[in-house]
Amino acid sequence: MMWSLVLSILIFYAILIIVNIPASFIGLNFENAETPKLWYAPPGFVIPIVWFILFTLLGIGRYHLIQTGFGSYQWWLFGLAFLCATYAYYTLGLAKVTHISALWFGLWGNIVVILFAALVVYILLPINTTAALLTIPVIVWTAFASLIVVGEMKLGKLI
Questions:
Q1: Could you tell me what percent of the chain has a pLDDT over 90?
Q2: pLDDT digits (tens, 9 = 90+) for 75-124
């Protein structure tokens, strides 16, 4: 049973890592060394740590779905993980192509992530409460990240 939990978590780590490997090769890099501009923004090194924690929670959620016989619902968690993992592509990538600030794409992308995560919680709640509750931190973190994006947009006079 423990191997199933570990496998579930490793699958989500694999999604996060494999999806992001090509990003640096095509020039989509976040400036991790940059000091946060806003007092409430965490240092850059915290962000990947948080995402590994969030993907761990999604992996545990998948494990609970499988253990309770609702494995077919795991695809909602996979969809959410893929959407979250592709952040660099739909922010920095689209900014590179369109010459529009990545902050705009980040804000809209965060809104989509929040809405999709809320939908996943809504779908999973009657099926498996634990899996649904383990998805909520994605909403909380992405909402916090959205506040940072809005703050940076204000500093950059984009809004």
A1: 69
A2: 999 999 999 999 988 888 888 889 999 999 999 999 999 999 999 999 99
CB 89 within 8 A of CB 23: yes
| Mean pLDDT value of segment 9-38 | 80
State the pLDDT at residue 32: 53
Q: Tell me the residue type at 143.
A: A
The full 3-state SS of 75-122, as one line of letters, equals HHHHHHHHHHHCHHHHHHHHHHHHCCCHHHHHHHHHHHHHHHHHHHHH
Phi, psi of 61 (to 5 degrees): -60, -45
Q: Contact at 8 Å (CB) between 128 and 70?
A: yes
**Other Cβ atoms closer than 10 A to 35:** 8
* 80 contact partners, CB below 8 Å, separation of at least 6: 58, 113, 116, 117, 120, 135, 138
34 — pLDDT class (breaks 50, 70, 90): low
Residue that has been written with the tokens 């919680």 in this structure: 121
Longest CA–CA span in the chain (Å) reads: 53
Rounded CA gap, 51 and 61, in Å?
15
